[in-house]
Structure formats: structure tokens, C-alpha cells
Specification:
It is a single chain. About 0% of the residues lie in helices and about 60% in strands. The model has no long low-confidence stretch (mean pLDDT about 95).
Length: about 160
């Protein structure tokens, strides 16, 4: 079976496609947490629809025990640089982030966040993300968040190397 042809609507995000592995391990910090490291595998693909599919799977760097998981879709408003990032996370958070793609950089911020009724406190109230393809061809992601007890603060930074197109 032939792989699906990429929908031209998502062409501005084609630099994100592929399987990516954290290299070096990602770094996490937040005022209420001890600093930590993690490994992450990212799959970003398309099936010919006007959106990308994604999954982010993180693991403990020593034990390889699963940690954070999220999956969803990245949509572009046709004929614009407006982007929506729709994500469901294993922490019980579902979010919609919106922003813009400019060249090989995607900046998005939470538009709406929903959580399960028994989500752990403090609750996430805002999220921002920045993805960019750096000059070495590596994908970088920086995530900041605000909770019910902390202002907007950088939470994660990770650099990925591409392992499959």
C-alpha cells in the first residue's frame, strides 16, 4: 500500500514529521518539584488528512519505566499560519493550545484545559509550548506552565534527534 500523500494544508509543519528521540535526556523543573531528567520518544505523522497525529512517550532515564504520555493532533487553519494543538494526557488533562507556525518554529499557548474530577493538585491552569527545528536539524521543545499555586514558569526543555523520517 502506498503511503498517503501529505495534505497541502499541513505542509508548513512538515519539518516536525518523523520519529524523534531525546538526545540528551530532557530536563524538568518546577518550584514544587525536584529537578529531574527523562527520555522521550516522539512520533509525528500524517494519514493524508489536514492535520498531523502525534504521541509523546517519556521514560525514566535509568529504569526506563513509563512516565508522562500524551497524544493528539496538530491542525492548521487553511491558508493561514494559525495552529491548534489538541492533546490528551495520562495525567487526566485534555487541552487545546493555539498559536502560530513561523518558518520552523511553532509557538502555542493554552486556549482551554479540562481535567478529570480527581486530578492531583495543584491544577494546571495555563501551558505554553515552543517547538523549533534548530540549525543542527534537531527538534527542541520548551514547555512552561502555571498552576493554582505557581505563576508561569518553565517546566520542561528537551532536544530530540530524528531517527526516522
Amino acid at each position: 500500500m502506498e503511503p498517503p500523500k501529505m495534505n497541502p494544508v499541513v505542509e508548513p509543519l512538515s519539518w516536525m514529521l518523523g520519529t524523534w528521540l531525546s538526545d540528551p535526556p530532557g530536563a524538568g523543573t518546577f518550584p514544587t518539584l525536584q529537578p529531574f531528567q527523562y527520555l522521550e520518544e516522539v512520533h509525528i505523522s500524517h494519514v493524508g488528512q489536514p492535520m498531523l497525529n502525534f504521541s509523546f512517550n517519556s521514560f525514566h532515564p535509568d529504569t526506563h519505566k513509563p512516565m508522562h504520555r500524551e497524544c493528539g493532533f496538530i491542525r492548521l487553519k487553511p491558508d493561514t499560519n494559525k495552529v491548534a494543538f489538541i492533546s490528551a494526557q495520562n495525567t487526566g488533562i485534555v487541552e487545546v493550545e493555539e498559536g502560530e507556525v513561523n518558518g520552523q518554529e511553532l509557538c502555542i499557548a493554552s486556549h482551554s484545559i479540562a481535567k478529570i474530577s480527581f486530578a492531583k493538585e495543584p491544577h494546571v491552569e495555563q501551558i505554553t509550548r515552543k517547538f523549533r527545528l534548530n540549525s543542527e536539524g534537531k527538534l527542541e521543545q520548551t514547555v512552561s506552565m502555571a498552576t493554582t499555586t505557581q505563576p508561569m514558569t518553565q517546566h520542561l526543555h528537551v532536544t530530540y534527534k530524528k531517527v526516522t523520517p
